[in-house]
């Protein structure tokens, strides 16, 4: 949230959040269809996604270099992490 709020004025980013009500794909697709009419690009992230610090600029470089392609990421399974010392 904080990252997008700080960047939204400079980068013209719109951030949408919705609670998971079991219809995540339907809600996401509905939002995409509404946004696609005016958006230059659409990026989907789920709450369990951990991105690198430069992910947005990397995406933007690829999008400009290859304007007619869909960019998809890959995933890695992380080792379990302890958030609290207990």
Summary of the model, kept short:
This is Glycosyltransferase 2-like domain-containing protein. By secondary structure, the protein is mainly α.
Explain what you see.
It comes from marine sediment metagenome. InterPro entries: Nucleotide-diphossugar_trans (IPR029044). This is Glycosyltransferase 2-like domain-containing protein. The chain is an all-alpha fold. The chain has one domain. The chain has three helices and no strands. The longest helix is centred in the middle third of the chain and has 12 residues, at 24-35. It is globular.
Task: Tag the structure with descriptive keywords.
86 residues, 3 helices, globular, Glycosyltransferase 2-like domain-containing protein, Nucleotide-diphossugar_trans
**Strand-residue fraction?**
under 5%
- Given the structure, what is the number of helices? 3
Helix/strand class: mainly alpha
Number of strands: 0
In the predicted model, the low-confidence regions spanning at least 5 consecutive residues are none
| Shape label | globular
What is the helix/strand order?
HHH
Task: Report mean pLDDT, rounded to a whole number.
Answer: 73
Compute the gyration radius: what is it? 15 Å
Tally of distinct domains: 1
Helical amount among residues, as a percent range? 25-40%
Largest sheet: none
Distance between the termini: 28 Å
Protein name: Glycosyltransferase 2-like domain-containing protein
